[in-house]
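Final report, Chapter 2: Outcomes

The project's central promise was a pipeline that accepts a single protein chain and returns its three-dimensional structure in a standardized token representation, suitable for archiving and comparison. That pipeline is now operational. To close this chapter, we reproduce one record exactly as it appears in the project archive, with the input sequence first and the structure output second.
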Amino acid sequence: MVAGEVQFELKYDRVSEIKAFDETKVGVKGLVDAGVSEVPRMFHRPPDTFGETYVPSASQFSIPVIDLQGVQGDRSTRNSIIEQVRTASKEWGFFQIINHGIPVSVLEEMKVRVRRFFEQDDELKKQFYTRDNTKKVVHNSNFDLLTAPAANWRDSVYCNMAPDAPRPEELPEPFRDIMFEYTDGVMSLGHLLFELISEALGLNPDHLLKIDCAKGLGQLCHYYPACPQPESTIGTSKHADSTFITVLLQDHIGGLQILHENQWIDVPPVPGALVLISNDSFVSVEHRVLANFVGPRVSVASFFTTGFHPDPRLYGPIKELLSEDNPPKYRETTVTEHMIHFQNKGLDGNSALLHFRI
């Protein structure tokens, strides 16, 4: 420093950077297409999240993979599957499922079409770019862009598919037809999963169906472009989903991790498999997605939720599972109230359920 020179640092204007980025309506892919070689500061992970990077080898753990073959057949096979669901839900909060009834060709085509949406001309995508979550199709980059500690390295498009499905012409052309076919398959699978989870909890098979857990479905399609500095940012921050259950379709790139016994564990892609993420009887697992050099990574999260549909029904700990020794741990709330809290909170690393804890 030269004598008499005044040293100062310009104040970082995060709000202006976020605003300028959002107004482009081209998302993270737009940055990559423009040839960015450094991750902008708005995407930098907060320092306190570093150190959660050690991931033990998959050989140290047995990632649950449940084969649904024969679940509608003899009772002993179904009981065996229910027991696997119970164990995976209590100990892990997630499991992968195979022989789920959705053709592999549909899974593969869904991923191809989602990638096609994000890689089409920017002007076509901009038609759907919005921060208005009441629309049936919402395309943007980071739903919590204005509130999260750091933006995630991904772009998304959300389609509200049930109970009030959009008209075909309301959906983007690249995945219009396959979205309806894939949704039909996921809805059928969801009904089966809610039956199995009900039975795993010791309830009647139709218990969760009767309280509308399978009534609403939203499809959230993510696109994670290749990142020039993946160590500086993250694809999706640590969080637990705010839905009844989530059925996740992921491609071959990998990057999904779950927090198990305070350690981040890779969830390796299994061809043809789907990932299921589920009053603390069953765990709501925290998970994240790493940024990567190779990209793009594509995934489709099917959210069983009625959060975007006004409904006065109150949800809370299942009364049949409560007792003097196991009192309720959460207050009752509507799905809409829970979803609004989740949306406003954003992916800040904390569970949205803490807000409803008694």
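Archive annotation: The chain has one domain: 31-356.
This record, like all others produced under the grant, will remain available to the consortium after the project formally closes.
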